[in-house]
Specification:
disordered N terminus; homodimer; 4 helices; 180 residues; 7 strands
Chain lengths: 180, 180
């Protein structure tokens, strides 16, 4: 099984900062110290297509509410809805493109409180809100720290369609002149 | 942006029950009552391909640790690793194919404690373990109930590569002769 892209256009082309404060430096120069708790930022918009809803679900979540429009129309949501994992992927793409640092990102141990409070339907237009909750230097590894972030995706009717609390490990900014 | 499948083979073809008790009825006939807390089941195996790791990440998580083998070789994991969201998708496919009921599945409000305790690398062979933790009838809607399940993906070295606690809403079995 292999996925391939039918077009090379970025799904996030044209996404822009909607609210909050832009980071002081671009992602490639960001480190742990650039994630000040308390700041919220919003980026949008991304439009969800039926073709991608169905293709994603055929591979990863083949429940008919995600793959079969006729079945879905008779189901509890009254129509086709995106897999929650597809919604999470849309969130992650925005999170990578606009929030995470570049080379200073050292991965994630996991996340908590992933919720899908309202369904995502083809044609929905979503924006991301990210709020830095906590930035804690590592006690055992002085070159890095843990950042906790509340992430949300919000639809055109101002409903939250995804929320989560992410944990990410970021490198600390090297001291000037250390050669690191 | 549209994904398409290069082959139509199921990634889970040949996956079989490895441990635990098979459900008494096939998925199409399963309801809330078939999810008895305490039972663990295992299904495997699924092998992860580099092509899918890179294709998934290009769309949903374009960090170079997931997309660029040369960069990844110099990074903290010493080689290309799968996006945690791709790993979650692999888990979900097994969960849908082997654990969830068919038409009795009414969606999920979310999940907790999603963790990626070890990286997934191309060539890894994974199996799923699912343990039903709790099955609670709804107080407000007598036709359904909430099932909580611990899900794990385990690699060929017996390392957990994903764990989570899922919440799912399932229909209750209709009483005989009610016409429901």
């Amino acid at each position: 099984m292999l996925w391939s892209m039918a077009t090379s256009a970025s799904p996030c082309a044209g996404v822009r900062l909607l609210a909050g404060n832009e980071f002081p430096v671009p992602a490639s120069e960001r480190y742990f110290e650039d994630y000040a708790p308390g700041l919220a930022r919003e980026y949008g918009y991304v439009t969800v297509t039926e073709a991608e809803v169905r293709a994603f679900a055929e591979r990863f979540d083949p429940q008919p509410m995600h793959t079969d429009p006729a079945f879905a129309a008779t189901g509890p949501f009254g129509g086709l809805i995106a897999s929650g994992w597809h919604t999470a992927g849309i969130f992650m793409r925005l999170f990578v493109d606009h929030y995470l640092p570049g080379a200073a990102s050292l991965g994630s141990p996991g996340l908590d409180e992933l919720r899908w409070p309202a369904p995502v339907r083809p044609g929905d237009t979503l924006r991301m809100r990210v709020t830095t909750l906590e930035a804690r230097p590592s006690r055992s590894k002085p070159d890095r720290g843990l950042v906790r972030t509340r992430g949300e995706l919000i639809n055109q009717e101002e409903q939250d369609v995804l929320s989560l609390v992410a944990m990410n490990i970021f490198r600390r900014r090297p001291a000037p002149g250390t050669g690191h």
